[in-house]
What we know:
alpha/beta; Rossmann fold; 7-stranded mixed beta sheet; 6-stranded mixed beta sheet; 33% helix
Amino acid sequence: MNTNLKISNVTKIYPGCVANDNVSLEFNSGKIYALLGENGAGKSTLVKILSGVIIPDEGKIYLNENNLKLNSPLDAKKNDIGMVFQHFNLFETLSVFENLIIDSDEQRESLREKIDTIMKKYNFSIDLDIPVLNLSAGQKQKVEIIRCLIRSPKVLIMDEPTSVLTEQETSELFLSLKKFSEEGILIIYITHKLKEVMQLCDEVAVMRRGKLVSVSEIKNENIESLANKMVGQNLKTIKKKKAKTSSDQLIKITNLNFTSEDPFETNLMDINFSVNRGECLGIAGISGNGQSELFQVLSGEIISEKNSIEFNNNYIGDLSPQERREYLMAFSPEDRLEQAAIPQMKIFENVALNNFKSSNFFNNGLINENKIKEHSKKIISVFNVNTDNIELKSQFLSGGNLQKLIIGRELITSPDLLICFNPTWGLDVGAINYIHETLIKINEQNKSIILISTDTDELLKLSDKISVIHKGKLSKIMNAEEVTSEKLGILMGGAN
């Protein structure tokens, strides 16, 4: 039976913001649909309405001409709408089977039989009796998909499904999604990776500022046309120039180790590398393989042996983040709202966080708020942060604008080295474009970057040299020109 999903005149208004403005869309089984838009475009709100997380102010949802009342996620599930979220909703210490049955009222025996049938049908090879924490990112995602398939959904919504997958795992996912589509499941695919849209999808809907602005067949589009539709203007093509060869070593990491008492953290083992001035070293890896721990050690959040990190001819392994900043290092962590900024604090207050000891901000031992505010206005202007209200709490900035503010706060001091971790995570194409341009300019000014990222396209675009971290170990350093996304994917999966 064909499935028809119709969104009719859906509107959702928040104080000061129209998230969805009279949106009407129609989807039919047999096709894979992409839903695109910048941060704040309204696609997340629309998807949350479809999954029962948010109730619209106006409008209706029809599935096969039945008017759906989606007042909760359970209502969505009962109406055959399944959703796989970007962040896995699994209990790490429970077994795969326990995770799959946790919200089901079916008998364990019959449910196990159903799960076995699903796994055989789609060639999902997963041990149901091992803890989820022992699974790869790709396997965890398959568990989430199985949990949806148990209910025989008519609609399957995928939210940024490849953000933590290798190239090979992404290919496997695409094969599965195409098979689901052929069998009559209607698939809606949300991503910021336009290359994936071109590879996988049949039709694409683009939202901007709460409105639906375009619906088209993918054969009539390309990456550039989709990006331009999302931002409402033509984006510049950004290309990194080949780095000038330099023998001036800026930072050297020697026999760096980290052993954690937390079983959910990854130990670092014998990390060795160096970065010269003007270089960008990219470090790839699947989430959970030591990237977070490596960033924390390099930034000083975790103290290491003094001689393990040499920066500008100074041993700094035992120094704090603030002390390292005084040596002209800068840091942009992965979690913008928890590690880099305090959501409830105002913009100008957050600006002072990385430089609160600066003499520029004090008069006779007292904080000079006006100087901090002037400094904040300069960052907003130079780094194109879309706000003129420095009194605004940081939590109300979009992800892209908050990231611009954080990177601007770090770079305004003209550091010699920027260490950043997933700097464009979850951002729209316009914000990504701007941040990539900014990072390229840093290198052109003979400044250095250590870029830790799960995005292989980003790494290949920005890096001069690339390594891969897997289970806390770093691969050999490779020239970026000699590396393909396929090769990176293989190394990220653990191959030598």
